[in-house]
Design brief:
- The longest helix is centred in the C-terminal third of the chain and has 21 residues.
- It contains 13 helices and 13 strands.
- The strands form four sheets. It has a seven-stranded mixed β-sheet with strand order 2-10-9-8-5-3-4, sandwiched between helices.
- The termini are far apart.
- By secondary structure, it is of the alpha/beta class.
- Helix 12 runs antiparallel to helix 13.
- Bound molecules: pyridoxal-5'-phosphate.
- Pyridoxal-5'-phosphate binds next to helix 3.
Length: about 400
């Protein structure tokens, strides 16, 4: 017989997942309800309203996709892309490549443009590519945890409208930690996950879409044969090729129609609801400031240790920091020592950055002073143990000074 689950008390300081807020874990221990129970429908409606607050939107269609963050990406792309549509994907890290791959599977003619990892796109470049390719859809990450960079998006929505393209934004890594006013920035569809700045576990993807996107989706609506009532008409657009990620069906399921689709992931809805409540109780500006402060203090500490930060610092995400592994240090051995001796997890990296940088997250429940200080103190010891020379004690002092200077 396997033992009862008893995970080590890790401090998760990687690029996600992070430790869940204990309030979220408590909400998840509540008993299940049937998905058409009036009390549960009320919880669903509350979730929509809470996430309107989180996304800073009035969008009617603000709901949860059951699955990890990529389920939100897949639902958006599968429902927006019709086979043969041209889709522009600006790639500034691994999660841009993910959108290329999903868009291709949806039958899109994908135009991928790339910039070096550690940089983002200038607005003029995006405008030029929009004019050149005239895509039906632009799909882009807000923050890409693989490079720790955040793409400025304030102007892109307007540009996309001017060129008659829809804009999908993957805000998995930033929602709740960096400002993302969906309506003010004219973002058509945005999705996220819980396991980063929202302080929850992965497994639910909050998503919002506006009327421009709705129009494109509902013309593809069709009702499953077993649910169809006499006289009901399908839309005249091509059927969305995924059933699970068919946003037209999921909208019918979340609406007053309550048309059956999948069995709701009840416990994940409880989690998502509590994540939003925690965030809105703190206040969005306060949560963003907390993330920025933790990031600033972490960076000050790393630099005081003599380490070099990765990437264009003007466009660094507020919640994940890339730092070069110093010469002579075995990056994986250091991560192992952090885990085994201190119960602290930090992130490795992918693709061209593999073996070159570590990624340290300060987000959600862990965007806290004590978590930052403990991580710096532990990293300093681990580096010293590998004979890397550094000024002992400087990192924690610098981080404390950064917090004091706020
Ligand atoms: C920007 C971005 N998009 C998508 C994902 C994928 O999320 P998930 O693993 O929850 O499916 C991640 C995960 O790190 C991410 O950072």
């Amino acid at each position: 017989m396997a033992e009862q689950i008893n995970p080590a008390p890790r401090l998760l300081m990687g690029p996600g997942p992070i430790n869940a807020d204990p309030r979220v874990l408590r909400a998840m221990s509540a008993q299940l309800l049937g998905q058409f129970d009036p009390q549960f429908r009320q919880y669903m409606a509350e979730c929509s309203e809470l996430y309107r607050g989180v996304f800073q939107t009035k969008n009617r269609w603000t709901l949860l996709i059951d699955g990890t963050a990529r389920s939100g990406i897949e639902a958006a792309l599968a429902s927006l892309i019709e086979p043969g549509d041209r889709v522009l994907v600006p790639v500034f890290g691994r999660f841009g490549h993910l959108k290329v791959e999903i868009a291709r599977r949806c039958g899109a003619e994908v135009v991928a443009i790339e910039t070096e990892w550690g940089s983002v796109f200038a607005a003029e470049v995006l405008e030029r590519e929009l004019k050149k390719h005239r895509p039906k859809l632009v799909a882009i990450s807000h923050g890409d945890t693989s490079t720790t960079m955040a793409q400025p998006l304030a102007e892109l929505g307007k540009l996309c409208r001017a060129h008659d393209a829809l804009l999908y934004v993957d805000a998995t890594a930033t929602l709740g930690g960096m400002d993302l006013p969906v309506d003010a920035w004219q973002l058509d569809v945005v999705s996220a996950g819980l396991q980063k700045c929202l302080a929850g576990p992965s497994g639910s993807a909050p998503l919002t879409l506006n009327e421009r996107a709705e129009k494109r989706i509902v013309r593809r609506r069709h009702i499953e044969q077993g649910l169809k009532k006499a006289g009901e008409q399908d839309g005249d657009g091509p059927v969305i090729r995924s059933n699970y990620f068919d946003l037209a069906m999921i909208m019918d399921y979340w609406s007053e129609k309550a048309l059956n689709h999948h069995t709701e992931a009840t416990t994940m809805l409880y989690a998502a609801r509590e994540c939003a409540r925690i965030l809105l109780q703190e206040g969005l500006p306060q949560a963003c400031a907390r993330h920025a402060a933790a990031s600033k203090a972490l960076c000050a500490g790393l630099q005081a240790m003599g380490l070099a930060l990765f990437g264009d610092q003007k466009h660094k995400m507020a919640n994940v920091t890339g730092v070069h592994i110093p010469a002579g240090v075995d990056g994986e051995k250091a991560r192992r020592a952090l885990l085994e001796d201190f119960n602290i997890e930090i992130g490795t990296s992918f693709g061209p950055l593999h073996g070159k940088i570590w990624r340290i997250g300060t987000m959600g429940y862990n965007a806290r002073k004590d978590a930052v200080l403990m991580t710096l103190a532990a990293l300093e010891t681990v580096l010293s143990q590998q004979q890397h020379r550094l000024p002992r004690g400087a990192a924690v002092d610098a981080a404390l000074a950064a917090y004091r200077a706020l």
